Amino acid sequence: SGPMDAVVIVGAGQAGFQAAASLREAGFAGRLTLVGEEAALPYQRPPLSKAYLAGKTDARGLLLRQESFFSEHRIDHLSGTRVTAIDREDRHVRLSDGERLAYDHLILATGTRNRALPVPGADLAGVRQLRSIDDADALRGAIEGVRHIVVVGAGFIGLEFAAVCAARGLSVTVIEAAERVMARAVSPETSQAFRAFHEEAGVRFLFGAGVTAIEGEGGRAAAIRTVDGQSLPADLVVVGIGVVPNQELAAEAGLAVRDGIEVDAFLATSDPAVSAIGDCVRFPSRFAAGMPGGDRVRIESVQNAVDQGRCLAARLTGRPAAYDAVPWFWSDQGPRKLQIAGLAAPGDASVLRPTGAGFSVFRFREGRLSAVESVDRPADHMAARRLLAAAKSLSPEQAADPGFDLKALATG
Ligand code: FAD
């Protein structure tokens, strides 16, 4: 796609930052501009619902690199700046400050935004979400002095948030429309274990409960009403009901989108001068074969953002390879660490592998290993990543046998 003197990256999050850093590492010598609408230097989001929320790390500790890294590597970071349009014909983007920025190659790394709760009262003061450092700062202040915290959605972020609140002795109730925690992502066995961990820590749950309204008092949230007519006191409501990809910019430029910006195995869009990476893309993956949505997925994880950033930088510097990294993910909930390798579909079979400390659940789709959920079992997680990378499987019987040597199979 022609000489590459200028690369522009839209979105200065985990994926955009990684692409910039990896491009320089691979020797890209042209102009490199990282445009991000947030004010902060690129930072990590995972601690926002964990150590940062708990006050165990500060804003500096979140940064992916200190400021000097960007000048030293000639990465022009335009903070507080939004890309408002793409002109693919003339190869430039338009910025919120009215400027234009020309590119030879454009990388879209726009991430996702939180899904809004579509009920009356969702805009009351005291109704919050957690995505950015600004959200986390606001929440850190808001949890001081509240009496009843209600979390809507028992996904990873909602549960991590609830665990931090419970550890501080705060009253927290989690309302979930499904019948179990993390229902989209993990097996019933893992859901059950985490429900018990949280209940022991003092978190209350309400399952099968859709929210119909948030009721206010003097403009502030006071209670939350559920489908079955219950009303729960709530002076802080934290909504964690999933995300939507930031794909409008791509769609308005005529690029294909469908729950994510569509890319091929090389992370290229239908325009060879435009690529896309991270939470905002839907891409083909062998790990998604046999899933209900077909063999294309959109993945929200640090691993995927980092590995796609690296893969794309390699292609743009002359070492093209299809993206084939094993998906993996972690979630810290109170003292428990959940690690997931692979991609499970809701209908995948589960086999519990009980061991000394913690446990793992091995998931199988059409008889083949699809994913492994490990709870306080880092060795199982690492073995699972190796097995999946090598497309090796084991039988459900082997997985269930505590005497079966997993490590030998993984490293053999
Ligand atoms: P993001 O990091 O979201 O970055 C996208 C950036 O693009 C944003 O800063 C956005 O403002 C900017 N942007 C969007 N549109 C424009 C535009 N038009 N112009 C300029 N800028 C724009 N993952 C894990 O693997 N493990 C965890 O434990 C974990 N915990 C998490 C906890 C929280 C609270 C959150 C919110 C996420 C967590 N994640 C976790 C997910 C992980 O953070 C994301 O998968 C990762 O950040 C994705 O990187 P990204 O670069 O694709 O998107």
How would you describe this structure to a colleague?
- Helices cover 24% and strands 28% of the residues.
- The chain is of the alpha/beta class.
- The strands form seven sheets. A five-stranded parallel beta sheet has the order 3-2-1-7-19.
- The longest helix is centred in the last third of the chain and has 15 residues, at 302-316.
- The protein is globular, with a radius of gyration of 22 Å.
- The model has no long low-confidence stretch (mean pLDDT 96).
- Residues 10-16, 35-38, 45-46, 48-49, 82-83, 109-111, 130-131, 157, 246, 249, 278-280, 300-303, 305, 329-331 line the site of flavin-adenine dinucleotide (FAD).
Brief write-up:
The chain has 412 residues and is of the alpha/beta class. The protein has helices at residues 14-25, 59-62, 67-72, 133-142, 156-167, 188-200, 248-252, 302-316, 378-389, 396-400, 406-411; strands at 6-10, 31-35, 75-78, 83-87, 92-95, 100-102, 105-108, 112-114, 127-128, 149-152, 172-175, 204-206, 211-217, 220-226, 231-233, 236-239, 243-245, 261-262, 274-276, 281-284, 296-297, 328-333, 336-342, 349-354, 359-365, 368-375.
